[in-house]
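Exercise 7b. Backbone tokens:
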């Protein structure tokens, strides 16, 4: 894989996208990892009756969706020494078990500051298999050179 540097990227460049299928087991594993055992994520029987999001299905943790989006930026930048320094996410629709979540990113801005402080702004998004927008994230990636 070719090293990514501040000079090698341009506004409009697309980052390699990722796709992940999510299941109820994915939600249970994320609950263990995050210590968030909210029944909206973990209890299909309770959600079928309560329908807190207006749907009778458990939904993924918002931080799970954010981590999927951020993996696009980290998979792209970390091997070359880039670091995520800031992020701002917005969740638009809950992720339902059985969906495939596709996350992608585009470089929107370049900021030349000084060596080791130069950064790009990447806009990330998560969509389901039907193209429904689930979440967006604006993140800054600093390059070491």
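Sequence design result:
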């Amino acid at each position: 894989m070719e090293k990514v540097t501040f000079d090698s990227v341009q506004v409009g460049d697309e980052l390699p996208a990722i796709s992940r299928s999510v299941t109820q087991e994915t939600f249970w594993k994320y609950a263990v990892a995050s210590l968030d055992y909210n029944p909206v994520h973990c209890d299909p029987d309770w959600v079928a009756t309560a329908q807190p999001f207006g749907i009778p299905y458990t939904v993924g943790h918002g931080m799970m969706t954010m981590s999927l989006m951020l993996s696009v930026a980290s998979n792209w930048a970390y091997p070359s020494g880039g670091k995520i320094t800031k992020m701002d996410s917005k969740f638009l629709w809950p992720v339902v078990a059985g969906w495939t979540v596709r996350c992608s990113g585009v470089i929107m801005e370049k900021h030349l500051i000084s060596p080791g402080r130069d950064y790009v702004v990447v806009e990330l998004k998560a969509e389901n298999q039907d193209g429904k927008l689930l979440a967006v994230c604006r993140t800054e990636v600093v390059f070491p050179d």
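Instructor comment: The first helix runs from residue 24 to 34. The two ends are 18 Å apart (CA to CA).
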